[in-house]
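User: What would this chain look like folded?
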Amino acid sequence: MPELLNIPQIPITVRVDQPNGSVDPLREVRSRLGLNRADFARFVGLSERTVATWENGGELKEASVRTIVEIGRLTTKLREIFASADALGSWLKTANPAFAGSQPIQLVERGEIDDLWRMVYFLESGQPS
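Assistant: Here's the prediction, encoded as structure tokens.
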């Protein structure tokens, strides 16, 4: 079984307000992806306004929490591959021949996140796809 099944999850709480002034988990995931709020909203399949509400202490629905956790897991792996959040953000928004010319962010929008996981596997294994 590929080691990808043992990827650590980032902590996500039902409420994202942080009274101690620390960065909330959603903003941290967004920052680690190198995405602005609009692109992050595309990535998680929700509106920019919803993401802003989350980042300002709004409650998360259970389905949204699952989405953010999955994106967090993927982000953790991708950040091991890319030198910086900016490089990762740029890659996510650049058409890629490995994805038939689609941008990786478009794969997530279409619910094809497994294609990104497959690429991570091949990058880590050094095997051609």
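The radius of gyration is 15 Å. If you want, I can go into more detail on any region.
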